[in-house]
User: Fold this.
Amino acid sequence: MSDSQNDILIDVQDVWKSFEDLEVLKGVSLKVHTGSSDVILGRSGIGKSVLLKSIVGLLRPEQGSIKVMGQQVIGLKTRDLNEMRKSIGYVFQYAALYDSLTVRENLEFPLRKHSDAGEEEITERVFEQLRLVGLESAVDKMPSELSGGMKKRIGLARAIIKRPRIVLYDEPTAGLDPITAREISELILSLEEQFGITSITVTHDLECARIVANQIYILDDGVFQHSGTFDELKRSTDPYTRAFFQVVV
Amino acid sequence: MNSYQKPPQISYYQMTRKRIRSSMEQVYGITTFGLKFFRYVFVPPYEWGQVRKHFDELGAKSLPLLTIVGLIMGLILALQSRPTLDRFGAGGFLPAMLALTIVRELGPVITALIVAGRVSSGIGAEVGSMKVTEQIDALEVSAVDPFNYLVVTRVLACAIILPMLTAYVDFLAIFGGYVSEWISSNSSMQLYFNEVVQSLRFYDVLPGIGKTIAFGYIIGVIGAYQGFNTSRGTEGVGRAATSAVVLASLNIIFLDMVIIQLTLLFLGPG
Assistant:
């Protein structure tokens, strides 16, 4: 096996997924290398989040293969799937903070469930995460008291508190003003560099893609139509890619 | 050019068939969901912290409402029964009649229906809103089983707390009956409660309290099922809460009828 193949952390091969009569993914394939930050771009409702949820085992594709850290996700037993999920962080589109828990409890949750850390260590880790996302003052707030941008930051902090190898971001900047969106994108980049995270970001925000992406994949009609770096795709002569970049920029 | 096409008309027969099919699917869904509880309840991790939290949320917070209902139920029952019993010269049987009616039937069913209204809808709405805001997915990707964390804990709390609440309501309702007796005839408390205790046997109390474990299970399972299967955003959350109350209440009444038949069959009319 070549070094390049050993280096692949997420390997998606010919994945098909449909909902009743609607075919969403039609044989999509993707390889994500260790340390890489890949971005999936595409219009709303095209199946970007479906792919992300399939990678983490929340959805089960009808056909194809998804390997994460060498383990086949499709058909994996719940116990093994949960073991694999401990190495993955997931940032949801609307943060998905547990609304009956405070910010502190939200951040403590993954540590209490899956680590032997003592009270002191847990508190230390929580404040460390809050410092990283610049929200120490929100520690005892309820999610309902936070703004959209603050929720995203806390969602991000919760996703990386276990120091996962992989983080999957589902529309991390959706619904935010351009300044906050840019701050979140820069925060993602800085955390990834700091902790050596491999990531896939699903977005339709080109500015976010420009900041965080090593490689961009454009999803359309159930498959990746084009891929490349931000600058390569910007110069593309393909009509769909051009249209996408022109409309959004 | 207008490209809008009207959806095809569905006949009454097709609509009825679709509704029956969907109801059958729901019965199947609730049954398998309910049976899944027994597969999970004995398997670690045990979320006792969550169960304790739900005791407070589902049980202790129902106490004020149940206190009022229990007292008034006993009071009204005594007020309504007294003239009829007097007409047949059986006024002395009032404490015994009240105790049997309340302990065997009214206490368990009324408590279960009130808790179903308050708790089942609450569970449906809470779990439903967790579903539509992806909090259940967040639990799953955190390697926490949402069924164990959200459903087992709530069902267990309901099944444990409802017998306790029923015993509390039974006592209050019997006490309410005494208050009515005291107001109308200034009767002695000791005499009244002596009559009550003498009229109740183990076979009256056990099925009455015992069946509330099943009622609590139904309240928890149906509320959680409706929440877990919520779709279509906030509108779906509202629908889940309403359906949870309706289905839980119907099932409680239906199950009560079955349990009464079984009790009569195995323990006799008493």
The CA atoms of residues 114 and 202 of chain B lie 25 Å apart. The interface with chain A takes residues 126, 129-130, 133-135, 137-145 of chain B (CB under 8 Å). Chain B has a mean pLDDT of 91.
